[in-house]
Amino acid sequence: MSQMNGASSLVASLEAAGVDVMFGIPGGAILPAYDPIFSSSIRHILVRHEQGAGHAATGYAQVTGRVGVCIATSGPGATNLVTPLADAAMDSVPVVAITGQVPSVAIGTDAFQEADIRGITMPFAKHNYLITDPADIPRAIAEAFHIASTGRPGPVLVDIAKDALQKMTEFKYPASVSLKGYQPKLAPDAQSITDAADLIAQSSKPVFYVGGGVIKANASRELMELAQLLGAPVVTTLMARGAFPDSHPLNLGMPGMHGTVAAVTALQKSDLLITLGARFDDRVTGKLSSFAVHAKVIHADVDPAEIGKNRFADVAVLGDLKHTIAALIPAVKVALGKNRPDLTAWLRQMNSLKATYPLGYDVPKDGSLAPQYVIERLGKISGPQTIFAAGVGQHQMWASQFVSYENPRTWLNSGGLGTMGYAVPAAMGAKVGAPDTTVWAIDGDGCFQMTNQELTTCALNNIPIKVAIINNESLGMVRQWQTLFYEGRYSNTSLESKRIPNFPMLAEAMGCVGLSCDRPEDVDATIEKAMSINDQPVVVDFRVTRDAMVWPMVAAGASNDDILIARETAPDWDSQEL
Amino acid sequence: MAQHTLEVIVENSPGVLARVAGLFSRRAYNIERLSVGPTDNPETSKMDIVVNLEGHALEQVIAQLDKLINVIAIKEIVPNSAVPIVHDTQPDYQN
């Protein structure tokens, strides 16, 4: 125990929590904390906007599995963290945000730079604190890290009044955390495992519906064993890309609004969804009442509130997925020993769909660049160890579709909140967490203009990320919907203005290498050139056709049965044996 | 629709009422009646929340409430029954 001020106690607590890096910007209310940060072992990366700090913390957490940390001052500093914290909540990412607050006597007086950030983040943060007594700092930090990283991970905010940072206190970091109202379940009940195994052994059309929870629980190896044991097809949601290798013959790809025909149909025609860390999101189910109507549901999740939220679960398995899948393996072995259904016909049907309706795209007849081709080549050339972070929109869907993900924690995106501008700062955080791995941000020109200022941070802090701007001079996904549902009335989706901004010049201005490419024959050489530069961030402006659309597509609110593989083109169901 | 009363034991700390009320608001559920009072333990308070919900919606409210870190235990007072349904996942809870 030693005497120090609250600020030093905060930094000592962060060190005790194992923090090695944090992303942030100082300001008035948090200023006392920045003095001990100056001499701390923790690497502080000075970002250019607090939103960048939040997404960087998320990117770091997604890649490392550790808690990402961001720090900001009161008022606007704190409110700028709202978007990334809401983003982290939707995608269950462990993030701790530290914010300064005005002095406790000024709270409630509309003081300069006062914002009730605890109140603002209450609806989505997993938990949050307002600390006015320096003695509470170590306990709050220990609890915040515990809550953020256990159970269903999520963001926790610790707001600390300036005077609590300034007053003297005794530093004593708690050896353990015990919260009466928070005891996440690790091991599932034995009965639920037996029930699940029994259902599996009765199913002739099972499918593994795999969500991001498998990656959060580091359960990919267990999933591989279980999937091979049963020999059932696997679909990986947008948040689960990489949880199961794309190259595996059982992997049917991504389900949902822009999923493969095989993955969408597998869920629709299945008699048993083995749901692992997925949450029946509307982008996966389409019209809920027509989703997988013949299927029974096993729903395994760490969050009890997800079970039955959108879809009734015939068997609920509550617990950490690593424990759950590990427990399922022997139970399924036993159950299959008694009764092993023949999955041959089911697999044949799904493989037929997979072969008949692979992901594809039209090559523009005018010689312009297809965005899908660029992304496909990025995946091929940079290889399966590469980490990709996408923004939100068409490029995000193509990045999910046309890169083959072989490993967990190599695909980062804003799946739940759909935050445009996620890619560059998330890639920055990812590169900090995995400095020896190639990190590509695949971004749209709309997204890129929201958060590219963090390239300055990257250039100045030796964070050499690579950015591929899929530049179609428009807000492409919105434009696609206008094409399909608004008779081509392109209201406010054109970003075209004579190549303004000039992205390579912008990149150069921020201390990065700027490249551009607008011909298919130059794509490989451009990517290889970008791959050869490892001492500076690189930005490549890929000038692609604006008319490309994301297919397949299930229109918002439509049934998954109405999946289209191109405009007004349904799969030829009559030729399929289903 | 039958009214159900949820007896919710919460930590006696600032902002807890806002958390509970906010959860109902955010998940688009109505509170029919609400009272908050002390318990024998100064560290906890008791909220009696009357809702016009049943079945799936009621289960969801209870599950979401239980996720609040400051919520320690939830009992559902069933109409015309002397025995409450205890949704208490916390074995060490002492009222």
UniProtKB/TrEMBL annotation, chain B:
Keyword Amino-acid biosynthesis attributed: yes
GO-annotated biological processes: isoleucine biosynthetic process; L-valine biosynthetic process
Pathway stated in the Swiss-Prot or TrEMBL entry: Amino-acid biosynthesis; L-valine biosynthesis; L-valine from pyruvate: step 1/4; Amino-acid biosynthesis; L-isoleucine biosynthesis; L-isoleucine from 2-oxobutanoate: step 1/4
Keyword Phosphoprotein among record annotations: no
Signal sequence, start to end: none
GO CC, alphabetical: cytosol
Gene3D superfamilies documented for this protein: 3.30.70.260
Family per similarity comment: Belongs to the acetolactate synthase small subunit family.
Protein name: Unannotated protein
Annotated organism of origin: freshwater metagenome
Lineage: unclassified sequences, metagenomes, ecological metagenomes
